[in-house]
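Team,

Forwarding the record for the chain on the shared tracking sheet. I've put the sequence and predicted structure together so nobody has to dig through attachments.
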Amino acid sequence: MNAIAQSIIDAHGGLTQWRKFKQVRADLVQGGALWVLKGQSGVLDRTTVTVATDRQWASHAPFGTLAAKSEFTRERISLLDEGGNVIQALEKPRGFFEGHTLETSWNALQLAFFAGCAMWTYLNTPFVLAWDGVECEEAGEWAEQGETWRKILVRYPESLEVFSKVQAIYVGPDNLVRRLDYDVEIAGNTPGAHYVSDYTTVSGIRIPTRRRIYPRLPDGNCAAEPLVVSIDLSGIALT
């Protein structure tokens, strides 16, 4: 972990404190145009999300009316009933997005993969910068919301399942994350600008409770509409 990652991680509570916990759990309320576009409106509007901090694993429970919960890993996505029995499962799920565009509909397992990958990444940021193989470097300054932010270019290794291997994190003067940029490869490389705010402190860790994602324009600014995804978190617990 280099000095850039260290400064950002320290501002969010520090790696020593983070590594005391194995999971993050939160009540999740979601909205935005993406779920309608993908034919999955309402499935994950209100649920509980849990992610691991020491491995790439995530779960949404309930998974709408379709399953008691989902389980996401890099190699497998599955939907399970109340007894833990597998209802549906898919091995190497990323390959099933081949040729997808932003308008391509998803089935339930594809939704579970997208949601699991997304929330694992979001809730592990910025501590994922300390993972083996993750690299970051300064990429200049960016003026937005009346502040000057540091833009950090992040490269992820093949061993991690993320939306795109090269992303950007913007941090404010306090070194807290303000924005994430990525291109969603499994949805036709759709560019997104993902804003985080309304931080709370849970067990010594600073966590944003509000997330809003908009289309990212070629000049790096975001379009005012549509609101692609909204995420609001409450009842956050680290265990």
